[in-house]
Structures are given as C-alpha cells and as structure tokens.
Amino acid sequence: MNVILHVVLEHDGIETRRSDGALVPVLALAPYLTEPLTFDPAAADWSRFGGEACAPGLARREPKALRAILWHLGDVRLAQKAARLEARLTDLPPGEVLYAELWDGLGFSANREPMRALAALLPLAAVEAALATVAAKQRLALSRGLLFGAAGFLPLAPADAAFARLTPAEVAAAEACWERHGGPWHERTLAPSAWTRARVRPANHPAARLGAGAALLAGARAGLVAALLAPVREARDLVGAVRDLTAVADHPTLGPDRAAALVANALLPFALAFAEHTGDTRLTEAASAAWETLPAAGANEVTRRTTRQVAGEARLGPLGERGQQGLIHLDAGFCTPRRCYECPVAHRVLADAAE
C-alpha cells in the first residue's frame, strides 16, 4: 500500500499496481547505465551485499561512479516529489501547495503532523489577505499572532516565548493581533497537546519553527510564491534567500541546514511542478541548475547510515544536497527493504567484478 515507485533494470511494459489497485510508476535503470552490464544477475552472488558495507572497494577506486549513481537517485527523488506536487496543483492554488510543503519541512520529524494540520486550518490565502490590511511594520506581529494563535500556543507561555526568542513586548503584540484578527479561528485552534516539545533540540522546538514561519510570511511582501520563485529565476543563492526572508532584525530564524532542506524538499520540487504545470521552460532550467549546485544540508541519521552501508570507511567526496537526497532514496528504496537485486550500486559492483 505504501509503494510509490517500482524500480527495475528493464521494463517489460506491464503495468505495476498496488494492492489497492492504484497504478505505480516504473523506473527502468537500464537507459541510465553508463555502460552495458556484462554479468548475469541471476547467477551473481547477492550474499555479498547487505552486510556492513556493500561497495567500499568501488568507493576507493571510483568514487565518481558512486557519486553519479547517487546524483541520479537524487534526481529520481526530486522528480517524484515534483510529480506529486504537480498533481496537487490541479486541485489547489499554487500558494497553498507551496505553503503546505514548507510547513511540513518546518515541522521536521517530530512535528510534521501538527504543522500540516496548521497549514490546513489556517490557509495561506487567509493569512495573506489579513497581512494586506496592515502596515508593513505590523506584518510580523500579525503573522505571529495568527500562527501562534491557530496553533494553540496563545497565550504564550514564557518557556515557549524563550524558544521563539520573543520579548514580552513582541508577545503582547502577537496576542493583541490574535484577538483583533483571529476571530475565525478562536474556537477551532489546534490542541496544545498536538505538539511535541520534549526531547526536541531548541532550534527544532515548535515555537521556534512557528516563529520562523511567521517571519517568512511577513517577509514575503509580494506573496509567498512570488517571493520564493524570484531567487530561483534569478539564479541567486537559494539558501541565503530563504534565510533572508525569515530574518528578524537582520538575524535569520533558520540555520543554513534547515534552509537547505526546505529548498531541496519544498521549494525546488514546487518550482519544477509549477513550471511543468504552466509550461515555463525557463523556470524548469533555472530550478534544475539550482538543484545541481545546491549545497548539502547537514548529514542526518539516514544519510550517515547509508553512506556507511555503501562506502564503509571510504570517502565518497562532495555530494551536495542532490547526492544527500540520493542517499535517502537509496536507503528507502533499496537498503531498508533489502532490494539488493535491483540496487544500482550492487549492479555496478557486480559489473566491475565481471570484467
């Protein structure tokens, strides 16, 4: 039921369906191989894979070959996300699609569900309509008031205010804006218990992330879509652009790693989906170029584990975020389910051994 892509060496043309009857796209790897396979997969020794490390020798001899595989898998992951978002664009305005993806990313692992619920409860259109009614200097207070209020954080506890780095005056301004503008949501806020606060790093605390989201909405004076697609079209530093938009008094509320993750998981997939939906080939080219040069966000448990699984102690060299996303795709699609028979890394190792 959770299958979203069937990866095979060669496609026999037969449709792949899940148990619920939904069609699953098929990715054939053969067209992407840099050279023909010279071994018989059926006769190969597959027991050599799935242990402590699968391709340490290849990583030492030809790290470029492994980087190319990971970059391709990162491209596959990006294409899947873009396809999913393009499908959503047939039913929702572009801003709501981008907003939901950004809020999902702001939720990180512990608070994704309440962040998604907040985006559904408090639509972007409603926030931007309210922001259009106040002076520029009041936008941040209003944005904070609506987000913290609908999220069930108001009145704001001193501990939550400290995580959000809000002064007593800023808390008072946000609460006043919530009372004045938040009427439609006063009786249907999220429950405070919906949020995970314990054992969460200070930078990932939901109050800190809500503060970053509020700053982003307040800073996007031309609208969220326009504000975030502009740096893509202009080939600017996207991580820096996101951090600038979330800055309060010239201090970004997001670190570079989280900003890079938002670019990789939300902004660029949305840009490609929007470009495909509107036929904007220039935006497609700009987003693709940005993807290839996007700096890597910090390593996480999945990318560290998959790097060890592939290379052992050998170094793969610079992967960028494109390669990091490839590691995540490799782990989810091949390593965790132990689908070594279909893994492009395993096929490359066996092909080299057959020469």
Explain what you see:
This protein is 57% helix and 4% strand. It has helices at 56-61, 63-89, 94-106, 112-121, 124-131, 139-150, 158-163, 168-181, 206-219, 224-233, 238-245, 256-278, 281-293, 301-311, 320-335, 344-354; strands at 6-8, 16-17, 23-24, 26-28, 247-248, 251-252. The chain starts with 5 loop residues before the first strand and ends with a helix. With 355 residues, it is mainly alpha-helical. Among the domains are: 1-31, no CATH class; 95-220 and 233-256, no CATH class.
What order do the helices and strands come in, and which of them pair?
Layout (H helix, E strand, L loop, with lengths): L5 E3 L7 E2 L5 E2 L1 E3 L27 H6 L1 H27 L4 H13 L5 H10 L2 H8 L7 H12 L7 H6 L4 H14 L24 H14 L4 H10 L4 H8 L1 E2 L2 E2 L3 H23 L2 H13 L7 H11 L8 H16 L8 H11 L1
Parallel strand pairs: 1-4
Antiparallel strand pairs: 2-3, 5-6
Query: Mean pLDDT score, rounded?
Result: 90
Helix/strand order: EEEEHHHHHHHHHHHEEHHHHH
Helix content: 55-70%
Sketch the major β-sheet. Answer: 2 strands, parallel
Structural class: mainly alpha
Radius of gyration: 23 Å
Low-pLDDT windows of residues: none
Number of strands: 6
Taken as a percent bin, the fraction of beta residues is under 5%
Question: Strand sequence of the main sheet, in spatial order?
Answer: 1-4
* Total count of helical runs of at least 4 residues: 16
Oligomer state of the chains in this structure: single chain
Give the overall shape. Answer: elongated
Through-space gap between termini: 40 Å
